[in-house]
Amino acid sequence: MSFDGRLLTGVSVFLAVADAGNFAKAADVLGVTPSGISRAIGRLETRMGVRLFDRTPRSVALTEEGRLFRLQALPLVAGLEEAAATAAGSAAAVAGRLRVSIDPWFARTVLAPQLPRLSEQYPNLKIDLMTANGRDDMMSGFDVAVRFGSTNAGSLIARKLLDVRVVTCAAPSYLEKFGVPARPEEIANHEAILFRDPETGRAFPWEFHRGDEIVRAKVEGRIVFDDPSAAVAACVAGQGIFQSLEIGLESWLQTGHLRQILKDWPDERYPLYAYHPARHLPPAKVRAFLDFVQQITREKARRS
After folding, report:
1. 166: closest CA among 71, 80, 241?
2. Backbone angles phi, psi at 202, to 5 degrees
């Protein structure tokens, strides 16, 4: 297939329709007519010899071929946008739209409060944030993903941002009613608030680390969460004992709404990674975001 400017235009229109979900919305974004959008998609499909969208009167949906083409086209178009920005000057290189798939706890407690700093530093950068803690297709249509847990990068580049301490805590009301466990083994006599591992679908096991010593505690709980904010809210309400990441938990501990227990077992850590597609050099907007996230996580850790 020979390249010409019409192909690039068709690809840009295709990506706009894929993001918008129908021709009318894409037309509004691009400032053209819906019929113009339809013609551009038709020419692109004819040129490629595949159907990219399944069409209905009200919406369009990507075919499997369209989904795969979108995954391949996104980084290429982003690279062209960056090249244009770089040619315009290094200060403008961090620009355009950055698509980020990010752990919801990290987004809420660490990144979101710092976004004004990022916007001030890079005024031409626009960010689409989608919160998720699973790893299946975490890079599908995204430039960067941020996840807690051990890395299984595959063909991706993984950057460790931080090792986060795991703490065990409960509300004062719960501890006053049921007592404070003095040893990890005593957790078995308490109500535990469980959290589902998105990789296995089962509740995370509980461990306590002190130097080289590791105790795997038996826990019983009637409620399993997959949203950390909801689990913390239940813990504050007195539902039971919860193991959580220390990062982001500071305000509840400092105000006394939660009390840390078993402080003499302080050494369990849980890693935080950022992922991006394997390239010789990631786009400037990806590098800027990764550097910023690493900076704010380290600042947060120092204050913990």
Report:
1. 241
2. -105, 165
User: How far, in Å, CA of 304 to CA of 295, rounded?
Assistant: 15
Closest CA relative to residue 288, chosen from 96, 147, 129: 96
Amino acid symbol at 265: W
Contact 297/111 with Cβ under 8 angstroms? no
pTM, 2 dp: 0.68
Contact assessment for residue 285 and residue 172, using Cβ atoms and an 8 Å cutoff: no
Q: Which domains does the chain have, with CATH numbers?
A: 5-75 (1.10.10.10), 94-304 (3.40.190.290)
pLDDT, one tens digit per residue, over 157-171 is 888 998 999 999 999
How far lies 151's CA from each of 146, 161, 197, 202, 243, in Å? Answer: 11, 12, 14, 19, 21
Taking a C-beta distance cutoff of 8 angstroms, is the pair 274, 110 a contact?
no
